[in-house]
């Protein structure tokens, strides 16, 4: 047995508490890499105590997961039984949905919805689809399994709308960079010219460098169209609307910009990214 296997969190690595925690976190990261083949990327701003708890939870989860057996969710929440949906009136639906979600919550399962749906559709989804799903019952205190409705039933219009909102919000915050997954790897201009993501970011940075900030940003989404091929899980979309904002130059001169905008999107394997946009005061070239 090597030294790494002998070390535990009960053995101080340093007499200095802060240094001990830092060294223990480094050790846990190496342990995760050695045992799981995974590299952990943690922000430098994350408190050491939070990092330590996270790393220990990762190891605990993987340990329990390796021992767990698959189980149908319906069997996991037994003896609770959901009433057949056809037997429930609209007035009964909310209370029965609450009871069903509580039964799931007690087994550390949560269902999330990005969009807005009727209670009857939520109940139908859980009883007819989710309860028949297999799960590895790990059962670690504080660990919850989240199921997202849209992962079962993609809402492409909602995804496109959210990408557009994210783009305009990032634009107003001067926060469009190489790491933004909102942007596609290539920007395709109306004339057919193609820019790499890094080239597009350079043009955006040049724009941002001319202004200290954008403020009082307001926009509308007036039209949203898309086509999607279920077979290839690919598609394209377009959003148009109007936007208005005040651009504050470095020398503090203010310019109010307003007018129509356009956002083009590309979809691969069900994931939408923006591959072109034009806003008042900016266009790619």
Provide a quick synopsis of the model.
The protein has 285 residues and is an alpha+beta fold.
Question: Could you explain how this protein is built, in words?
Answer:
Helix content is 38%, strand content 27%. It is built from 9 helices and 10 strands. The strands form 4 sheets. The chain has a 4-stranded antiparallel β-sheet with strand order 7-8-9-10. The longest helix is centred in the N-terminal third of the chain and has 20 residues, at 17-36.
The assembly state of the depicted protein chains is single chain
Question: Count the helices. How many?
Answer: 9
Q: Any idea of the CATH class of the largest domain?
A: Alpha Beta
Rough outline: globular
Provide the number of structural domains: 3
Which runs of at least 5 residues are low in confidence (pLDDT < 50)? 1-8
What is the residue-averaged pLDDT?
89
- Please tally the β strands and state the result: 10
Major sheet: size, sense and barrel closure? 4 strands, antiparallel
State the distance separating the first and last CA atoms: 61 Å
CA-based gyration radius: 25 Å
> Which structural class matches the secondary elements?
alpha+beta
In percent, how helical is the residue content? 25-40%
Share of β-strand residues: 25-35%
CATH topology of the largest domain: Nuclear Transport Factor 2, Chain: A
